[in-house]
Amino acid sequence: MRLSEGVEWAVHCCAILALLPPEATLPAARLAEYHGVPPAYLAKHLQALSRAGIVTAEPGAKGGYRLAKPATAVSVLDVVRAVDGAEPAFRCMEIRQRGPAALPTSEYRQACAVTKAMARAEAAWRDALRSETIADLVAVVGRETPPAAVTKAAAWFQEVLH
Amino acid sequence: MRLSEGVEWAVHCCAILALLPPEATLPAARLAEYHGVPPAYLAKHLQALSRAGIVTAEPGAKGGYRLAKPATAVSVLDVVRAVDGAEPAFRCMEIRQRGPAALPTSEYRQACAVTKAMARAEAAWRDALRSETIADLVAVVGRETPPAAVTKAAAWFQEVLH
After folding, report:
1. Which tens digits make up the pLDDT trace of A33-80?
2. B144 with A110: CB under 8 angstroms?
3. How many alpha carbons fall within 13 Å on the CB side of residue A80?
4. What is the pLDDT of residues B1-50, one digit of tens each?
5. Are A38 and A74 a contacting pair, CB within 8 Å?
């Protein structure tokens, strides 16, 4: 079971966009530069975030991405689902309906016990990610990032934001 | 994010093995027949369960698989990890250590906020699967399986167990 690499990139991008002054934007190429990731792949994930209503792309020469809503209103789950989709990790193939004990499909009125156990676990995972917002992450990053990295990041922002 | 198909097969096999009389075994080919799944693939997953100490393979002409311990002592998480591995679904690539704000690796003493949020969610998922045992699933299956399927399954067991 693995989340795609794009999830990490997308969460980090949202965290950076949450730090921008109001109305400021960052182009996809700048977000790729900041995170040291391939621009073409990142562009795909930013488009997924845009389709999910998490970021907005402002057009034009000074255009770029910004968060579409307050960072307190974007959960980590929102970002994960935008990039990785919302399909369950466990997909029941209904193997109970095969083999010598099988009955016609109409006889199975309850979900399989295995599926229900897996669904409960995935709900616990989703609940945990739904309870964390991009604003929460930014607060932690603010407390825990080494001061020298904050200084370097601030210098970079000064240079690229106009 | 997706669990492998083998997880479903392996959990169902453990549930069937939990129903066997003491000391009885079922060959891999019978388990494949019962679940309508490809024998060669299932054999691979049964070997993984065996390596994890969840099932035991008895050798010989009348040999086959049985649970290596009571069904109350096998969690769904044990089975998932035996088949799918124990690696986290979110693997942090430390992209915070790239780009213009990066510092030497030794400066990052805390795990990244993103990684910690993902780890908390995965812990919630694991806790849920750890709290469900094969015995719990068998109890639910016993209550919810259509009576006609129980009758057919019992007839099949009569035939294959000696």
Report:
1. 999 999 999 999 999 999 999 999 999 888 899 999 999 999 999 999
2. yes
3. 26
4. 788 889 999 999 999 999 998 889 999 999 999 999 999 999 999 999 99
5. no
CA gap B9, B40 in Å, rounded: 12
Q: Could you write out the DSSP letters of every residue in A7-66?
A: HHHHHHHHHHHHTSPTT--B-HHHHHHHHT--HHHHHHHHHHHHHTTSEEEEPSTT-EEE
Exposure of A141 in the CB half-sphere (CA atoms within 13 A):
23
Q: How far is B22 from chain A (nearest CA, A)?
A: 22
C-alpha B118: how far from chain center: 22
DSSP alpha helix (H) spans, chain B: 5-18, 28-35, 39-51, 76-84, 113-130, 134-144, 147-160
**B92 chain-A contacts, CB cut-off 8 A:** 8
Planar angle of CA A44, A46, A48, nearest 5 degrees:
75
- Which pTM value belongs to this model? 0.91
Q: Are B110 and B144 in contact (CB under 8 A)?
A: no
A137 touches chain B (CB under 8 A): yes
The DSSP letter of residue B71 is G
Cα gap B28→B38, rounded to integer Å:
10
Q: What is the ipTM of this complex?
A: 0.91
Residues A124, B120: C-beta atoms closer than 8 Å: no
The token pair at B9 is 């097969």
Disruptive mutation site among B1, B75, B81, B151 for chain A (greatest number of A CBs within 10 Å): B1
The domains found in chain B, sorted by start residue, are: 5-87+133-161 (1.10.10.10)
Nearest to B94 by CA among B114, B124, B64: B114
Integer Cα distance of B112 and A144 in angstroms:
8
Do residues A89 and A1 touch, judged by C-beta distance below 8 A? yes
Hey, which residues 75-104 in chain B have their CB within 8 Å of chain A?
76, 84, 87, 89-93, 95-96, 98-103
